[in-house]
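Q: Give me the 3D complex with iron/sulfur cluster.
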Amino acid sequence: MLPSEIEAAKKSILSISGVNPKKCMVCGKCSGTCPNYDSMEYHPHQFVQMVENGEIEPLLKSKSMYACLSCFACLERCPRQVEPAKLIEAVRLFVERQRGPHHLEAEDVPNYLDADMPQQAVMSAFRKYKK
Ligand code: SF4
Ligand code: SF4
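A: Here is the predicted complex, encoded as structure tokens.
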């Protein structure tokens, strides 16, 4: 990505999320409380710091944004009200909007199903892949 594209992406992600990463004191409590920590290549505090530092490209390529459960534990735990979950959601939205609508079609869903998958996972996938 060009520097101007990185700056535009950062601006967009911050605007979507409403988060001010400058408030983060990098205490790591958000990541320490995240129930899906082990599934994430980049953890909540890293999302905050990487967006702030303009390290956007690796975040956009990582699947970490899809591992967030939106449980808001990190949001509750943060002593500075940074709300990292909103930033992770904004990164995901930024990526999906760039891909365009209808990334996941209803007729493709059966290919992703297995016997143990709850129905909520299908609904969640539509929400995460179609915005
Ligand atoms: S808990 Fe808040 S202040 Fe601490 S690292 Fe996470 S976002 Fe930053
Ligand atoms: S909202 Fe996402 S990043 Fe935050 S604690 Fe829950 S799973 Fe982890």
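A quick observation: Residues 3-100 form a domain with the Fumarate Reductase Iron-sulfur Protein; Chain B, domain 2 fold (CATH 1.10.1060.10).
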